[in-house]
Amino acid sequence: MLALLRRPSSMLTVTNIFAMGLGVFSAAIQARILGPEGRGELATAIVPGTVLSMLLCLGLPDYFARRAARDGNGGKAAKLALVLSTAIGCVAIWPYILLVQFLARPETDAWWLLALYASSTPLFIFGYCLVAICMGLSKWSYVAITKILPQALTICGLLIMSFFSANALTVGTLLILSSLVGLLLPLLGKAIRPKGQLDFGNVREAVSFGLRGWTTGALGLLNQRVDLLLLTAMAAKTDLGYYAVATTVASVLNAIPTAVGIPARNKVATGDNEGIARTVALVQLLTFGGAVVLSLNLGWVVPLVLGPAFNSAVPLMVMLAGAQIPLSGVIVLTFCLVGAGRPGAPFIGEAIALITTAGAVLLLFPVYGIFAAAAANFFGNCLSLIALLVLARKHLARVPLWHFFILTPARAKLLFADR
User: Fold this and answer.
1) Whole-angstrom Cα distance, residue 150 to residue 180?
2) Taking a C-beta distance cutoff of 8 angstroms, is the pair 396, 337 a contact?
3) Does the predicted TM-score (pTM) go above 0.85?
């Protein structure tokens, strides 16, 4: 049992579940402090701010994770990441600040939070790259701390705020600052501090690799967030608050595929494609089980933890929990394709899924409201999974399709034998 827990996928699964649990606890405190309307105001800034920070990475974290896994040199990778993130941040900050004027009404809480995101862009990009380097170097203890520490700091800050008059601005500022602390934590590790001479050939290589996968990664990210992004513009603040909390609760299930996908990417980067299909099957099975357990307990957990004001979000949570099942396969397969050096391969599938999801939300929202967004999220994830399965059978593992969905006892035994 102890040997199993020492495996990266097992350790990261436990870490992710614990971090997600802290995230749900944090979300519960936020919900009680702000209420549905205030939580919606917070989501108006946090959702687009988070998405924009990830998009502005231009695919560089994938490059640095793969590079670190292949050559094991974290210092030079961190030096290159620092230069590139600074350059991107200096160029992007001005159009970002202009964009803020369109995303939120001037000088509202959401407006100030988006302005803070804009000014912190270089730090976010650099931090995402640092964490990716840790993953590539298999420094799982740092990866674990970067996931847990921000949530712990946020909870401590929120508990203090609960005794005072807090609003979306103060809560959002706390979320942004605690996220930055976690992302920049790897700088404490000597192997990941920026050092060495900058090779401009590596600059070209990093930008080329990042941009090749950036469009696909951007579409994948938008696929996961497009429903919430559209609702920030279409839904009332109260409904947006319900949906934001439901998304947070359902995303607890992502702890499983993320924990398994990161070590799988490192293995594929070294040429080891063995077991990809059974890994995807196991992840979807575990996510299905988690979704069932979560859904059966929401009826008493939500009023107890979030408060009776959020009872209306329970059906949304159930629908979004189901949407995590195909998404779990998408996450693992995306990691594996990046590890195989094909970050841009899923572009067409992601584009189709994004158009379908966004179209369904725009078409059905006027009739079915926020429930239409949850249904669109599920179908979009299914389309993404279908596209990635086609690519996986072409580039990673030429096995029967059912191998990605059904885990026989014999195939399950092979998983525990993998190292």
Assistant:
1) 8
2) yes
3) no
Distance CA 324, CA 331 (A): 10
Give the amino acid at 373. A
Token digits of residue 76: 């030079």
Long-range interactions of 114-121: CB distance < 8 A, separation 24+: 114/45, 114/48, 114/49, 116/172, 116/173, 116/176, 117/45, 117/49, 117/52, 117/53, 117/176, 118/93, 119/93, 120/53, 120/176, 120/180, 121/53, 121/56, 121/88, 121/89, 121/92, 121/93, 121/96
- The per-residue pLDDT for range 131-160, each reduced to its tens digit, is 989 888 878 778 888 888 998 999 999 999
Separation of alpha carbons 64 and 74, rounded Å: 9
**What's the token pair of residue 327?**
């998404």
Q: Where are the beta strands (DSSP E) in 211-333?
A: none
**Each residue's pLDDT tens digit, 148-203:** 899 899 999 999 988 888 888 999 999 999 999 999 988 887 768 888 777 777 78
Cα distance between residue 69 and residue 215, in whole Å: 23
